[in-house]
Every structure is written in structure tokens, then in C-alpha cells.
Amino acid sequence: GAGVPLFSSVQLETILYHNQFSLPNVNPNAAPIEVTNDLFRSGLWLLPAFLNHSCLPNVQRLIVWDCLFLRASRDLVAGEELFECYIETLQPVARRRAS
After folding, report:
1. What does the pLDDT look like over 83-96, one tens digit per residue?
2. Which of 6, 31, 49, 98 could be joined to 19 by an S-S link, Cβ 3.0–4.6 Å?
3. Helix then strand then coil, % of the chain, to nearest 5
4. How many whole angstroms separate alpha carbon 60 and alpha carbon 70?
5. Which residues pair with 84 in a beta bridge?
6. Which secondary structure element, helix H or strand E, spans residue 97, and what is its range?
7. What is the pLDDT at residue 76?
8. Partners of residue 25 on adjacent β-strands
9. For the segment 37-77, what is each residue's pLDDT rounded down to a tens digit?
């Protein structure tokens, strides 16, 4: 009915957590380099949220203000699926697998 929310705040937080894109924070003073996501500088873009993961992605993400751009990291064939890496590729394997 009217005035009844479709989703609870917990459900919305879960959706955002799993589908948001955020800018990285890089700590070059850490060894190995520490890369984390800045949850205060993040957004939800509907179409890129459908990208699948690959450890060898074929696109890179670039956020400029409120726009998200995907840039091909190699030549792509027409109709080829776009893959992004969900995890921080500069981290050691053990830390990436724990993500």
C-alpha cells in the first residue's frame, strides 16, 4: 500500500554494498601497497553493476565526478562480454582470495 517501503534499510545497504563502485584509497607507505575502497566516494551505476568478474579483466573503470567510464584494456571483438576485476589486483594473492 501507499507509504509502505519496498525495501528495508538493511536490504538497501546490502544492495549498495554488493553493487557500488567506489574510488580507491592508495597508501603507498604500506608494504605491500595498501589499496582500499572509499565508501564515502562511491556510487551506483545500473548498467555497469551487471559486469561480471575476471582476474584478467578486459575493461578498466574510471570515475569522474558523477560519471563512470569503462575503458577497454585491449582490443575487443564486437559482442564480447565485458569483465571487470571486483577485487584490488595490486594486493597479494592471499588477501585477494580472502575478499
Report:
1. 988 777 666 777 77
2. 49
3. 20, 35, 45
4. 6
5. 53
6. helix 93-98
7. 96
8. 36
9. 777 777 888 888 888 988 889 998 888 888 889 999 999 99
